[in-house]
Amino acid sequence: MARDDTEFVEFARAASGRLVHAAFLMTGDRHEAEDAAQTALARTYASWSRIRGDDAYRYARSVLVNHLVDRWRRPIREYPTEELPEQRDDDVADAVATRRWLFAILGTLSPRERAIVVLRYYFDLPEAQVAHELGVSVGTVKSTSSRALEKLRGVGAGAPRVHGTRR
Amino acid sequence: MNEADRLREAMRVTESTDQGMLDLAAVVREGRRLRRRRRLAGAGAAGLVLAVAVAVPVALRPGGPPPQRPADAMTTASVAAPTATPTAGPTTGTPVSPGGTDRKPTGAVVSSGIRYGAQERVFYFVPVDVPSVPRVKIGLVAGRRDTDGRLTPDVLINDVAGRDRHEGFHEIGYDQQGERQFVPPVPTFGYFVGPAMRIVGTVDGRQVNAELARWSADPRVVIFWFDPTTLAPGVRLDGILAYDKRGARL
């Protein structure tokens, strides 16, 4: 394997988990999410000599999100409950409740709104960066984020207690 | 914890089951294939690898065949022409002044500002007659105009199903010439029906703005093309979106 390929595979291993999860948040479908992440990483590989280093993750993320916004036309699907990690019963119940709550909120948003929410709150990007990556105005990002939080308040009565830590 | 924090935390805490599922060997194979395709496209050989196109381009020549369905599509552009590097410029619509083409434009010929020596890239609609698709009556031509107003068509795209005025995007035309360039590279082009004020293409995560012009014969129709200095002719778009004057997606 060429040195470039080794570098890329290391990068892809490190980035794939978050990319797949971001795609899952946008689609609600694990298989679609994996396909989208593979597509984004393949395009990243194709441009690797140009974007390796600091830009690679941003590039892959941008390709992924725009790919899904452009392609995803169907409403978000039911949240899946399979493949939960081994945990205590209480933890499993909490994880199921959290996932159900999260997808109830995301399911009310359009694909572009979901992309904004995922970039803003999952990747923790500033509004200007979200606007840049999606090619929309900062005002659109602000108003969409605000609408999403408004919807969240609307279903907040059923919100689970979220706990656990980021790995 | 406020709503934003709860949303943030919920997204992260559901992350744990999504790790390590990708086939990275397949990713590298697909990446290599994409890289090869880009190199070919960059070398002007996009047609070799983009033969299975979404669009249905039909090359025209004076006295040439009518538009055809995909199975019959031809790419037999036979017009030799100067191949100066295209440059971008202002966009204007001009009155029809057909010259050496057998198909008269319907509505105004749109100037792109892209020049090839003395010629200019233009776009215009022509009447078409597609067998078994009676509601497709127009096709969009990417052609060149000489200083005397004579038009030379390079590529025609037309719908091959449904109707030619349905809301939204229609077929998109790409340069599909092989290694031998018979005509100057054709910019990626097409039309959208609706109140589009901005059209943005996506290619490999990069966003590219299209140039727009309304069709004089039907203001709902927006002709668009991508400046070849920002989107290389022949490179396929990954996606394309239209926005209205308020920035809302159409």
TrEMBL record, chain A:
Family membership noted in the UniProt record: Belongs to the sigma-70 factor family. ECF subfamily.
Domain of life: Bacteria
Segments forming domain RNA polymerase sigma-70 region: 16-74
InterPro entries: RNA_pol_sigma-70-like (IPR039425), RNA_pol_sigma-70_dom (IPR014284), RNA_pol_sigma-E_actinobac (IPR014325), RNA_pol_sigma70_r2 (IPR007627), RNA_pol_sigma70_r4_t2 (IPR013249), RNA_pol_sigma_r2 (IPR013325), RNA_pol_sigma_r3/r4-like (IPR013324), WH-like_DNA-bd_sf (IPR036388)
SUPFAM superfamilies on file: Sigma2 domain of RNA polymerase sigma factors, Sigma3 and sigma4 domains of RNA polymerase sigma factors
Lineage: Bacteria, Bacillati, Actinomycetota, Actinomycetes, Micromonosporales
One Pfam family named in its UniProt record: Sigma70_r4_2
Keywords, in A-Z order: DNA-binding, Sigma factor, Transcription, Transcription regulation
Claim: Lyase is one of the keywords in the record: no
Protein name listed in UniProt: SigE family RNA polymerase sigma factor
Gene Ontology biological process: DNA-templated transcription initiation
From TrEMBL, chain B:
Ranges for region Disordered: 63-106
Keywords: Membrane, Transmembrane, Transmembrane helix
Regions that span the bilayer: 40-60
Composition-biased stretches (Low complexity): 75-100
Official protein name in the record: Uncharacterized protein
